[in-house]
Amino acid sequence: DDAFSRHETGLQELPKLVRSRPLDLPDIAMDMMVEVLHMENKFDMEHFSEMRMSGLLALVVAEPRIVGAGLIGEVFGSCSLMTRMNVLSALCEGAFEISGAKNLAENRLRIEGGTNEAGKVSGKHGLIHADTLNTSSDSQLQVSVRDGINHALADRTRRWGRGRVSGDESKGMVVNRFSNLAPLWFYGLLGNFVERRDDPALWGGAVGSTFLAQLLLAMSNILEYSGSHNAGVDAMSKDLFRLVWGFRQAEVAEVRMASLCGVATSLACLRDRSALMGFIQEDGANGLRRGLQEIAASDPDNKCRQLASSISKQMQAALQYEESGLLGFS
């Protein structure tokens, strides 16, 4: 009972302690992250996974450079699919909070008369639903992942044309502290992917496809929350587009949806006008317009067809407004 109580109290108090930023946190943050990430629920503790995720998120927010780099290394290591999902969710939730987007969302809820703002916003940008955190079933994880991708796609189509997180989206100024971190996380994930892209232990079977889909979605989130004033946003947008467009014909629908989500994000975030129009106007066999038309017409998954059609319409609007300089993706 004493051991159970100590573990439960430790997990409950960890987020508050970490967010208070004790002086020695930079020295111990990496070890704490590894310990929390791989902690097992030996005492069958209620809400164990949620408490563990809260601790991970606190570490990411308090020491994003150290912990972010450590998590990126862990996600490509020898671990379970659930651990990989926890890492990617912690990175996405961290980007959401560090960028100031969480504060903006809470402010909007408060203005609209909502209650329990933090509770409504928290977890919204994780890659797996909270109800699935305690499962050990890969099949349940894959269903949850598909639901998460569907939510992300719906969210992007609803917000199309409303711009990116820049720190001044509302009347209350919010500083985007994620801008300088985004390239480190983005290229950390991209570099590891390129290095391990032929590893069957990572990408084989249904589990590998689920991981790939969530990796692409996580990179899209990182780009989205990097902010429009980030000097590296154009480079990340181009690199994300080149990466995800190659998976548009993947066998698994979740990967194709994540690919299209990445396309939508990269076009929305790209500030380089000539590069954007170059992507839109390319009309070869591997061109964006032709590829989206084919997906919209013949992809076996309805969500993929709908999103491809939506992106195509936005591209057409961008072409129509080209002369006046009003791009539909801005």
Low-confidence segments, given as residue ranges, are: 128-136, 157-165, 167-171
Radius of gyration: 20 Å
- Output mean pLDDT: 84
Could you tell me how far the N terminus lies from the C terminus, measured between alpha carbons in angstroms? Answer: 57 Å
Shape: globular
How many β strands by DSSP?
0
Provide the structure class. mainly alpha
**Beta-strand content estimate:** under 5%
Largest sheet data = none
Q: Can you describe this structure?
A:
- The protein is mainly α.
- It is built from 16 helices and no strands.
- The longest helix has 21 residues.
- The protein starts with a helix and ends in a 10-residue tail after the last helix.
- About 7% of the residues have low confidence.
Give a quick set of tags describing it.
330 residues
Give a short overview:
The chain has 330 residues and is mainly α. Helices cover 67% and strands 0% of the residues.
Question: What is the topology?
Answer:
Blueprint: H1 2-19, H2 25-37, H3 48-62, H4 64-75, H5 81-98, H6 101-111, H7 117-121, H8 138-158, H9 182-196, H10 200-203, H11 205-224, H12 233-245, H13 253-269, H14 273-281, H15 288-298, H16 302-320
Helix pairs in contact: 1-3, 2-3, 2-4, 3-4, 3-5, 4-5, 4-9, 5-11, 8-11, 8-13, 9-11, 11-12, 11-13, 12-13, 13-16, 15-16
